[in-house]
């Protein structure tokens, strides 16, 4: 590997200060930094540093999303054949899934990458690893039938308006992937809601296939003596298959199991704040309990218990990968409790109370992204007041 | 006695611990004074190369207050003045005479009024032992500090043991405490580890116990928990165990004796002992068998200054740490599960499976500089109620009111050094704090 390193070093003067390609230095730095951890010495301050860097941090977050990604590939193919009423081998299912999901991922990666490189070169800063995460998140939160041109527009909007205009990674207020999804939701609502977008259909669909997502099912006002759980079961949705994820939905959101595996990695490695995760679950649980108590009857959506809410829609995915985004969430430890709690509570509230939005998680997180600085402000004020108190003694 | 058990912080486990043996006293061939060791001093030379100096000869004085002087504590000859950028005086180097038995000058030690003590300390050059908070700079002799804090515990990686520094100097230390008590309107406050009971016998001071991971030993942490700094004019002075011993010796005998204990540690040097020598000793006198490609640091790995192999130990330092320089690139290193990588974070197998193992650390930055992304982890290594990332950001935007409100008067660079160590964005915390302190002193 020394020869590869020496080979790359030959170009350092070309891209360095005064070199002919100096403006393209961010690309050189990205390539060099991707291939090697460089023997760069500490110059000022502490002489030794922790082995961690942002690449390591981001790669851990990336690995955590891989189970959901792989399951999403499988599920896209699986739902397709389920809707056709055909049985297929695992291999066929996976191939079909790859054909559906890979183009979506590649488009987001390329479009996002182009914008990231452009801004890095124009603004003269390094290419940030954060774009690896955003570009992995966007494919996971769109339906498998999303039209490519809409995807390109949404990715552009998410990266540029959601992140770059604020100054890039570390400066954004909103979660860029959610900004992209919100863009899709409000600009092309028919591509991202309703009952027909969550499965890649074939030439025909069998009657017994439920194309509606579980959330859409519970949003319909139907009465059933068995209660809301029976309503779901009648359409083929048991807690277990919703937990496993063999249901229609956005590519990465369906399998709570896969998401939880990733969440476990994030928590063990301290890459995600456990404070946020616990608080989101607590907020969702409290709000659900309140709604359960005031539910008019057992078929009403208010009666849906929390462990069902958790495996339906984007709640689990949002808890694990969106609410925990360190930049757009509250930056203080105490603030995170409020931030997370309100996300969980608002997500449940939007789902159950507003018929126009079966999914509330995205909106809840974007809303709390807006309020995160305010929450932090109060925590910082508390710190300042404490200091003022002993300053006046 | 008040006892504090602090939880936040982190002990970096470095190899290269020193044998607990003290080598007998040796006089180095050369010593040097570095005016840059005294933050806030603007030196004006009083000698030039070739001049002969004796114990007590002033070498340089502060341009703003001529009574603040760098004073020689050896007999010898000035060999060179080393200057850096913009002709800043970096070093005054003195060849030490082998014959040190000329009659030493005696300093006035009978008058124990505050003014007289300050004058004697200025005359003998010992005044530099006082570092003031806020601003973490050289103290001002015109001030009367509200308290004087002494940290008799250094929790930095591989730091010298305070009990060993004290050993044999107990009476001088007590004398020093007595002298210091005249300088403050408040008290002399001495903090030490519960197990170092040698310090519990001292009088004329308030005693405190602190235990916990680094930076529990930092004097700034002690001040924060005992009697925090309230504003820019709430002045306290700090000094080290070694400084108190020097002052005590002066007031016991009238003679200036700046013999110190220096610990040599670190994995890149083979012979590691405690050495008795004098302040400002040339490091080649103490460090033998240096490994190739090593970095010599006067001080500890977090806050110390790099010196050359022919460089000199800093005025305030009791420790020389020698660690390997980083040399090899690592292919796809960030993907490595990292069974042998030192880290506070749990993203490496080493930290997950064997967090307490001692690992070799070199001088690798381990990543490029990025924007501050994760904000709330820094509090976990700062045992004070400070919000480090918010403070840093307020300094970067030069918001003076915000800096004040967030507690910049309470901290020094060394208090946030661990934040710099663990930061994945490689933010230069210490440098930014220094900029903030300089800025607010000027404009606050």
Mean pLDDT of chain B: 91
Question: Which structural category do the helix and sheet elements of chain B fall into?
Answer: alpha/beta
Unreliable spans of chain B: none
Annotation field: number of helices of chain B: 10
Distance N terminus to C terminus of chain A? Answer: 63 Å
Oligomeric assembly: heterodimer
What is the gyration radius of chain B calculated from CA atoms? 22 Å
Given the structure, what is the number of helices of chain A? 18
Please tell me about this protein's structure.
The complex is a heterodimer of chains A (393) and B (444). In chain A, 63% of the residues lie in helices and 1% in strands. Chain A is mostly helical and 393 residues long. The longest helix of chain A has 34 residues, at 90-123. The model of chain A has no long low-confidence stretch (mean pLDDT 89). Chain B is an alpha/beta fold and 444 residues long. Chain B is built from ten helices and 21 strands. Chain B has helices at residues 114-124, 162-166, 170-181, 219-226, 241-253, 349-353, 388-396, 400-405, 417-422, 429-443, and strands spanning 2-5, 22-23, 30-33, 43-45, 52-53, 58-62, 69-71, 76-83, 89-96, 131-133, 137-138, 148-151, 188-192, 206-211, 236-240, 259-265, 274-278, 294-298, 305-307, 319-324, 330-331. In chain B, the strands form four sheets. Chain B has a seven-stranded mixed beta sheet. The relative contact order of chain B is 0.15. Chains A and B meet through helix 1, helix 3, strand 1, helix 4 and helix 18 of A and strand 21, helix 9 and helix 10 of B.
